[in-house]
Amino acid sequence: MVENVEIIKGTSLWRDAWKRLLKNKLAVFGLVVLAIMALLVIFGPEIIYLTTGFTADGIPEDGNLIKSFPPSLIHPMGTDEAGRDMLARVLQGGRISLMVGIISTFVSLIVGVSYGAIAGYLGGRIDNLMMRVVDMIYAIPYILIVIVLLSVFGGQNTPGWISFLSDTFGGAGNQGLSQIFMLFFALGLVSWLTMARVVRGQVLSLKNQEFVVAAKATGVSTFGIIFRHLVPNTLGPVIVYATLTVPSVMLTEAFLSYLGLGVQAPFASWGSLASDGIRNIAIFPWQLIFPGLTMALTLFSLNFLGDGLRDALDPQTRKF
Amino acid sequence: MSENNGTILSVSDLKTYFMTEDGVVKAVDGISFELKKGETLGIVGESGSGKSVTNLSVMRLIQEPPGKIAGGQIVFDGIDVLGLPIDEVRKIRGKRIAMIFQDPMTSLNPFLKISKQLMEVTQLHLGHSKKQAYDHAVKMLKMVGISDAEERIGSYPHEFSGGMRQRVMIAMALSCDPELLIADEPTTALDVTIQAQILELIKDLKARMGTSVILITHDLGVVAGMTDKIVVMYAGKVFEQAPTRELFATPANPYTKGLLKSVPDPAHEQGNPLYQIPGLPPDVAHLPPGCPFADRCYRVEEICHREFPPFVQINENHHSLCHFANEVYEESKKEKLATDGHR
């Protein structure tokens, strides 16, 4: 009599959350826009180069003739002061902006989650010490830390391992690129603080639950309990917070590049493009409008997605 | 082992204290008992009497601070558990001593699949490869009576009912074939029919695998059919210790008598109000100098408030913490004769 019973497939918490996310129109909009943006940014510059021959950083030979052209069929976003195709530059800049957002968030994720989980789980004096360090760093305006880091370690003084990373992944001896890597590192370094607090709070409430005692009673090591049992349980809030960190890091990057501390020519980011564009805002507005719009659209989408994820992963607070 | 006369666990004069703002809470204060190989020991007492703390101490699972094992000795199979470095204790936990917890709803990690949680134990202690661990996990699930274990093993805990989760916990506990199983109120959170099934399962597995068991409970009905001997705890102390049959037949402590009377007997007490021990368990942070049970005792005398009672030996295996242990014992004997004659 039991032969015909259909096997019920396990619905994990993730699948449940995914379903809820898909019901949220704004979040889906954000997800779609981000997916398109990612594809454009990854493949766009190459496609433009192959079809039209425009590149983002090389100044064309006839550059003097096509300086600051308005949008046209050949240059959908116009050209910049040096006659480079704005579309290629915006896409190239998006690469760097998105990379800054994602890599810095990743750094903050790794540092913040481990730091917070260890502090929360060990508790007592160690927790106190670790969190006071966080408080101290918090007390200094983060933009100040980044500016100091970038001006001390940027340019000629980039630490060896960062140059090594940029040589390995980008190409040897590229000064501008190691500056960008320094930027990833500096932004990651200041954005893990809130992550550590979020995770610590979660771990504090989780560590006294019976399944942790049960895991201890089966002989799991402290490391195993923190990273195999506790951290997966904090993932919901962590993912939400990470998606909201990406846009905030991107904004900071734009701000720094605007000040001339971040990405520098010939590299472009949305921030540095906007900074170039603002000089000519009255005469050639497209040089500001297009990078600005693209960035705004991306940031909106990230925020929508973050909000959507928060509602999806935390069913208690969701609206009906 | 022969050199310790088949004793698997011996706890002597164990003291576990908690430092709180309210003062030192002597959760366990001078507990001693012994467990032989293959035996089942029942630990009975009201909430807060120190049952669970005793067993967490055996596993060295007391949070320090605020807790502290202040004294005594725990010897497991010839090993001094309290003297071991924590890394060595970890090798014993889950492998040689396993534990089942009270609430199966919260003692499984909600984010990990059943398979992962079952595999973790054997990968850790038996050095199993993933494949071996998986096969072993399926085998264990079958052993604890989960049908179509191959399919269910990929589920998450929330897809299991309470009874099934407790089966999973038992499977996990028995994965490494431990020598001692500590079951901390394994059936309290389950309904009665499931309760019986789980107890039968533990009994059955114990018989098959020869595991020694410590069964902690506040339900005398549970221990009656399961255990060889019983330790009755009250306010962090052993109040009475005896073989199960003797304890039920002729208790030598007023507290035990009260507990036994509190079990409802539908055949005899119809219409009468249910019996309960008057008062509440004392605050273990501020114990009076005399007997901690004195305020609730039916035969309290002046000496009970003044002096701490002695641990009286009634016969070879029967001890009771009471000024009047022998008198209570005689009383119980008479009562037993009377009811036997009556029947």
- Residue windows where pLDDT falls under 50 for at least 5 positions of chain B: none
* Low-pLDDT residue intervals, each spanning 5 or more residues of chain A: 1-8
The count of helical stretches of chain B stands at: 12
Note the beta-strand portion of chain A.
under 5%
The SSE string of chain A, one letter per element, is HHHHHHHHHHH
Q: Which secondary-structure class do the elements of chain A indicate?
A: mainly alpha
Distance from N terminus to C terminus of chain B (CA atoms, Å) equals 45 Å
β-strand percent of chain B reads 15-25%
User: Largest inter-chain interface?
Assistant: A-B, 25 and 35 residues
Give a quick account of the main beta sheet of chain B: strands, pairing sense, barrel closure: 8 strands, mixed
Q: What's the SSE pattern of chain B?
A: EEEHEEHEHHHHEHEHEEHHHEEH
Shape of chain B: globular
Main sheet: strand order of chain B: 6-7-8-3-9-10-12-11
* Largest sheet report of chain A: none
Radius of gyration of chain A: 23 Å
Number of strands of chain B: 12
Helical/strand content category of chain B: alpha/beta
What helical percentage do the residues of chain A reach?
over 70%
Rough outline of chain A: globular
